[in-house]
């Protein structure tokens, strides 16, 4: 399927890296309103630049548009692409408010087009292994989940010097204005809703705690750099989700079931380590050894091996993936649109509902104070 990319900023390089193994996707060209950046990107990857957004939309050979622009531009570009008869894959979130996101889903459905949204980390081998382990009742019925999406105090690093492979600067100022929750909660939410279904209710708080981000931003323009919430799922599972730019890096997922615990080390790793601890099996020898050392020393040891055993699963080749810390198959999300358009994989309705549900939840988590700390979800994966 021929597709085009709109937006050649920092994240676009991750898509280009993972496109290398997607011979079913043909990149027709790219467009960006920043002509200097567009030229830099096209020179680096030897791809065709489009002269305008209209030129992309009028290209009848292009069936799919990947919208990789900044969040506040998503609605207008996605709507224009759908109006032009193109399938769309959009970076998160679909829109900056729920009403606009719902309009996009309705527009896609009315036109018989596929609309899907990032992130793509739930297409990973680690996710498939986790889903299979739950289906096989490895830890019994899931009851409680701890989801961590802490990216570390990046504002204390030399982020102003960060560049993508093709030379795009990391958009730190804009990231701090949009907020780490709106940017990153989706990585946890995509796993959570794919494993446990629709979210019924969100209760929590968000706050802006660190005002010095290494760049001048008015206090009123600074988005929350911390959020924590309890997500109640329609199936009874309870999840605690924390997002932030404050605590040490931690992108793990811990699922506690009636018969044990399953821990995914890193949701940004396509083939992440997964550990399973069952109540009817002994703790790992190395963990028991460390626990004995704790007793002998009379002090808690923060760094210990996992108590369970490592889950063995078959992972595919991953040499096409970006290096740590973003070992995600970004292009898999675009391919999901291609498959849905051909009646394979997830259906168009499922992709649209997932994108809408993730968008709604992320918007709420980012500004949950606007809802007095408690919110009843409007969207559902079944409607």
Care to describe what's here?
There is one protein chain. With 383 residues, the chain is of the alpha/beta class. The chain folds into 2 domains: 2-117, Rossmann fold (3-Layer(aba) Sandwich); 124-327 and 348-376, 2-Layer Sandwich (Dihydrodipicolinate Reductase, domain 2). 33% of the residues lie in helices and 20% in strands. The chain has 11 helices and 14 strands. The chain has helices spanning 12-19, 35-45, 53-57, 74-83, 98-111, 125-135, 172-178, 180-196, 285-297, 331-341, 348-366, and strands spanning 2-6, 26-31, 64-67, 87-90, 115-117, 142-150, 199-207, 226-233, 238-244, 253-257, 260-264, 274-278, 309-310, 374-376. The strands form 2 sheets. A 9-stranded mixed β-sheet has the order 13-12-11-10-6-9-8-7-14. A hairpin with a 2-residue loop joins strand 10 and strand 11. The protein is globular, with a radius of gyration of 21 Å.
Summary, kept brief:
This protein has 11 helices and 14 strands. By secondary structure, the protein is of the alpha/beta class. The strands form 2 sheets. Strands 13-12-11-10-6-9-8-7-14 form a 9-stranded mixed beta sheet. The chain has a 5-stranded parallel beta sheet with strand order 2-1-3-4-5, with helices on both faces.
What features would you highlight for this structure?
383 residues; alpha/beta; Rossmann fold; Dihydrodipicolinate Reductase, domain 2; 5-stranded parallel sheet; 11 helices; globular; Gfo/Idh/MocA-like_OxRdtase_N; GFO_IDH_MocA-like_dom
């Amino acid at each position: 399927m021929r597709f085009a990319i709109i937006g050649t900023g920092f994240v676009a390089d991750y898509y280009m890296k993972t496109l290398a193994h997607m011979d079913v996707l043909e990149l027709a060209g790219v467009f960006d309103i920043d002509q200097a950046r567009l030229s830099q990107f096209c020179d680096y990857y030897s791809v065709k630049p489009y002269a305008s957004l209209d030129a992309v939309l009028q290209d009848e050979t292009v069936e799919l548009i990947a919208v990789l622009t900044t969040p506040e531009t998503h609605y207008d570009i996605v709507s224009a692409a759908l109006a032009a008869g193109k399938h769309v894959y959009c970076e998160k979130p679909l829109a900056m408010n729920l009403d606009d996101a719902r309009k996009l889903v309705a527009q896609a459905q009315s036109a018989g087009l596929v609309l899907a949204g990032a992130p793509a980390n739930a297409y990973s081998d680690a996710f498939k292994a986790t889903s299979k382990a739950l289906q096989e009742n490895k830890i019994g019925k899931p009851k409680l989940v701890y989801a961590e999406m802490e990216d570390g105090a990046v504002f204390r690093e030399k982020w102003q010097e960060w560049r993508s492979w093709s030379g795009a600067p990391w958009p730190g100022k804009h990231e701090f204005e949009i907020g780490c929750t709106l940017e990153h909660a989706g990585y946890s939410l995509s796993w959570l809703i794919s494993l446990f279904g629709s979210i019924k209710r969100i209760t929590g708080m968000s706050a802006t705690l660190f005002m010095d981000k290494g760049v001048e931003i008015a206090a009123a323009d600074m988005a929350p750099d911390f959020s924590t919430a309890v997500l109640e799922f329609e199936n009874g599972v309870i999840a605690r989700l924390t997002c932030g730019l404050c605590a040490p890096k931690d992108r793990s997922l811990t699922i506690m079931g009636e018969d044990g615990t399953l821990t995914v080390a890193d949701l940004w790793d396509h083939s992440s380590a997964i550990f399973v601890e069952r109540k009817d099996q002994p703790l790992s020898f190395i963990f028991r050894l460390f626990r004995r050392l704790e007793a002998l020393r009379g002090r808690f040891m923060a760094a210990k091996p996992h108590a369970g055993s490592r889950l063995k699963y078959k992972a595919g080749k991953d040499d096409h993936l970006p290096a740590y810390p973003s070992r995600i198959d970004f292009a898999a999300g675009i391919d999901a649109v291609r498959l849905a358009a051909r009646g394979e994989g997830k259906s168009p309705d499922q992709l649209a509902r997932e994108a809408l549900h993730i968008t709604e939840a992320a918007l709420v988590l980012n500004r949950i104070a606007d809802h007095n700390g408690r919110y009843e979800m409007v969207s559902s994966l079944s409607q």
